[in-house]
Heme/copper-type cytochrome/quinol oxidases, subunit 2 (Thermobacillus composti), 130 residues
Amino acid sequence: MRTRNFAVMAAAVVLAGLLAACGGGKNGGSAPGIVIDESNQTKADSVIEVKARNFEFDQTEYRVKTGAVKFHFVSEEGVHGIRIPKTGIELRDGQTVTVTFENPGEYEIVCNIPCGTGHSKMFAKLIVEA
């Protein structure tokens, strides 16, 4: 009985640690050097519109300069969303977010809503240049 209680307590501690690690900080889980403003009050240096239709984005590559960028997502056909791993960016149809990139880098853009047989091939690249 004592061993079982210890195992349950240990599992609870591990679970609490995992949940704490997944929790977003002030940047909502973004990498250092990336600041997300979901209120869109930050003045953007540029605007990027990402459009999706069944199993593809309108571009295979999006290029922006470091600084504040306003992302707007539009699902033109089907039901799609986007996630840009390691940035904290997640958008659904019609949503906009302003993101400040302090450093250059490359990121993958993926559809984050299962949309059918071509879903696994639905990705593009975001290149942030100096």
In short: Residues 11-27 have pLDDT under 50 and may be disordered. The helical segments are 2-22. The chain has one domain: 34-128. The CA atoms of residues 110 and 123 lie 4 Å apart.
